[in-house]
Amino acid sequence: MKLHARVLFTIICTLGLTQCRSSDQRAETIGQDYLDREFKCSEAPLSVESDLRIQFARTAFRESWKNGKTTADIVFTGDSTMAIFGGDRLHTLLPGLDIANRAIGGETTAGLLDRLDADVVSMHPRVVAIVIGGNDLLGGRCMRTALQNTEMIFKKLKGSLPNSTLIMVSIPPVVSWKANNITPYYNRKLEYLTRDMGITFLDLWPSLAEAEKPGLKQEYRFVMPNGKEDQVHFNEAGYAVFARLLRPLIAP
User: Fold this and answer.
1) Best CA proximity match to 239, nearest among 172, 182, 167
2) pLDDT at 163 over 60
């Protein structure tokens, strides 16, 4: 079963795997305000990791891959930012490359770590590109825990695929001000981690974010059929920028 990118996005939104809501009211903005004095981060599993609807969709995506590619030169993995970068969009923006998309909407660092061997390592890729951590922050996970999970992901990949190139992509700027308040700080921590481990870091913020205030540039915001902006995903123009930045890092 092959999932078209548009169908994938519809499933993700319908099941609540992503926050496809209006950004009209600041008070309604999704995510956790890590800068609030009353905020307490979570060391426990997040609700997204136990939600039965999400787990059902997660299983469905993984089952669909069994009838697809078993090896690939390049593997994309992580959360919905990468999951939506598939199907026709992938072939249009990154033509001529042998890429398998093994990302799932709603994925967290813990979820990716759990399925890494089966969905990524088993394909023996030359390059692995990852976007992960955004849902951890939206769910209020303690940053140290998310970073520890990410470090374990890196260690597992480096141990199992010692000759592969690993690319960690930053959590991108979004519409949600709560997310934008914390992700630049988290991304710097992530960048330091990649430097220490000899992993390539791709920062999307200089190209996609507003210059004067944290947030996704207006021209890259995804407008849904009801006219409202998706708070955590960018549009086709944003993916074109993503592809332009990524291609030199993954091309043979």
Assistant:
1) 172
2) yes
